[in-house]
Design brief:
With 536 residues, the protein is α/β, with parallel strands linked by helices. It contains 13 helices and 23 strands. The protein has 2 domains: 262 residues, FAD/NAD(P)-binding domain (3-Layer(bba) Sandwich), CATH 3.50.50.60; 176 residues, Cholesterol Oxidase, domain 2 (2-Layer Sandwich), CATH 3.30.410.40. Helix content is 24%, strand content 23%. The radius of gyration is 22 Å and the shape is globular.
Length: 536
């Protein structure tokens, strides 16, 4: 098989690229995805995120683990990543967040030319089909449906009232003129038509509607193993499907869209990366590129959970399960109600102190108890507040466990390895503890899970004992011009012809928010750069 473009990975970036590149009938495109079609009810029903994120069983989820983390008492963290068309947008909470405009100006300052806020905003607008309509900050005609939650739980309103009672300003748009404040998240969800209330994954938004294009081939259940070369020019991709290895040839480019863990893994398996890492696994070096797999950044999340005195939240007790069953039937009829909820309904972007130029903390307020990524279940009604440091100083790495393409990558986030991160996370935890004790949440407030003694030492110990990712890994094939940059500002791998990376691994620095919308934006922009005549 031979195509103009081969895209490895059918996640958020891969779906965008496949749709945009194949819009030109003069080129042929092949998309390779290890998982399935991403069309089942587990994906379409937003509430079923709770059944996928745990990885027990592995439904649409790679369910990776980290190496032991010294900053977290030697614990191995859990890293859910989507394994289906749509990637992690098929298993996430659907929250539509762009980050702060200054984040992108910072990218440009770090050597990612052309990724300043003024340059990226048109691509956010191009992607977005916001139910609120077009404005200076929002697009209304893009393929990615974005809208307000149809029926948030009453406790989410109480959370906002509790924020106001603790002097946190309220906002109705985290992606508007000002990010700071507490509000309800907008979600990537179908807000009209026959699919109203269903998850709007990148596959549902971009890829599924164009799957019948004659110049687009989508191979599911197909694992990318390594790229092939003629000298230092990429000629194709070795893949494995149904136990058989195949060579798919590329006339123009191979594009890795495998994410912050998968893209460095593919490059390393192909002989591109730090020589010591390659030789440790007896992989012949093709091109020494020291930055591959370096610069891993992620949001470390600390959770405070309470039992609820009221039953209008999510619970796994008999009453809660009965309400979920009724909600599932209502969702099938109307697309509304609890089954359409992202679960993380409310949130906030906060400054740890007034001297900060932009928010440095993020809060997710969840209408149920989330403990260890739903891997530890509590058969009670409850709610949770999650807080993370938006721009951590800690850095980690992604490498190989061995030279077998079927093996999981070696993931070391380096959580709390920089001493600046723990005090800031503690400051965020104190702010959220105050919100959760405010009068507005009194009717719901039951006992706290995992209480500590109230001291700084007690809080620090609880963070080290329980904190883990909130699913935003980036940076491992970062753009830039320095010796540790892996790609240029268009995702082209330095020193290699015909190979590009397009996914969250390109980010020089973690943005101040959830990473799905920025990843889609990045794919929109690079797809446009690959077609110079295209207009925004």
């Amino acid at each position: 098989m031979e195509f103009d473009y081969i895209i490895a990975g059918g996640g958020s970036a891969g779906c965008v690229l496949a749709a945009r590149l194949s819009a030109d009938p003069g080129v042929t495109v092949c998309l390779v995805e290890a998982g399935g079609a991403g069309r089942g009810v587990m994906v379409r029903a937003p509430a079923m995120v709770a059944g996928m994120v745990s990885g027990r069983p592995k439904i649409n989820n790679w369910a990776y683990h980290t190496v032991p983390q010294p900053g977290l008492n030697g614990r191995r963290g859990f890293q859910p990543r989507g394994r289906a068309l749509g990637g992690s947008s098929a298993i996430n909470a659907m929250l539509y967040v762009r980050g702060h405009p200054a984040d992108y100006d910072e990218w440009a300052d770090l050597g990612a030319d052309g990724w300043d806020w003024a340059s990226v905003l048109p691509y956010f607008l191009r992607a977005e089909g916001n139910a609120r309509g077009a404005s200076d900050f929002h697009g209304a005609t893009g393929p990615l449906q974005v809208g307000d939650q149809s029926q948030p739980r009453p406790i989410s309103g109480a959370f906002l009232a509790a924020c106001a009672q603790t002097q946190i300003a309220l906002t109705d748009d985290f992606n508007g003129a000002e990010q700071e404040g507490a509000g309800l998240y907008q979600v990537t969800q179908f807000h009209s038509g026959p699919r109203k209330g269903e998850r709007g994954s990148a596959a549902a938004a971009y890829l599924h509607p164009v799957m019948r294009r004659p110049n687009l081939t989508v191979l599911t259940g197909c694992q990318a193993e390594r790229v092939t070369f003629d000298n230092r020019h990429v000629t194709g991709l070795l893949v494995r499907r149904q136990g058989r290895q195949m060579h798919v040839r590329a006339r123009r480019e191979v594009i890795s869209a495998l994410g912050a863990f998968g893209s460095p893994k593919l490059l390393l398996l192909s002989g591109i990366g730090p020589e010591d890492e390659l030789r440790a696994h007896a992989i012949r070096p093709v091109h020494a590129l020291e930055g591959v797999g370096r610069n891993l950044q992620d949001h470390l999340d600390y959770t405070i959970s309470h039992h609820s005195l009221r039953g209008d939240v999510v619970g796994l007790n008999p009453g809660g399960l009965w309400r979920l069953m009724r909600a599932a039937l209502a969702w099938r009829k109307t697309g509304e109600g609890l089954f359409a909820s992202p679960m993380a309904e409310g949130g906030a972007f906060l400054r740890s102190d007034p001297g900060q130029a932009r928010p440095d903390l993020q809060v997710h307020f969840v209408v149920g108890i989330v403990d260890q990524h739903m891997r530890k279940l509590h058969f009670a009604n409850g709610y949770s507040a999650h807080v993370c440091v938006l721009r951590p100083a800690s850095r980690g790495t992604v490498g190989l466990q061995d030279a077998n393409p079927a093996s999981a990558p070696r993931i070391n986030p380096g959580f709390l390895s920089d001493p600046a991160d723990l005090p800031l996370l503690m400051r965020g935890a104190r702010m959220i503890e105050a919100v959760l004790q405010a009068p507005a949440l009194g009717p719901w407030r039951g006992k706290r899970l995992y209480p500590h003694d109230g001291s700084d030492a007690g809080l620090a110990a609880d963070i080290r004992a329980r904190a883990d990712t909130i699913y935003h890994p980036v940076g491992t094939c970062r753009m830039g011009r320095d010796d540790l940059a892996v790609t240029d500002s268009q995702g082209r791998v330095h020193g290699i012809g015909g190979l590009r990376v397009v996914d969250a691994s390109l980010m020089p620095r973690l943005i101040g928010g959830n990473t799905n919308a920025p990843t889609i934006m990045m794919a929109e922009r690079i797809a446009d750069l690959m077609q110079p005549s295209a207009a925004v």
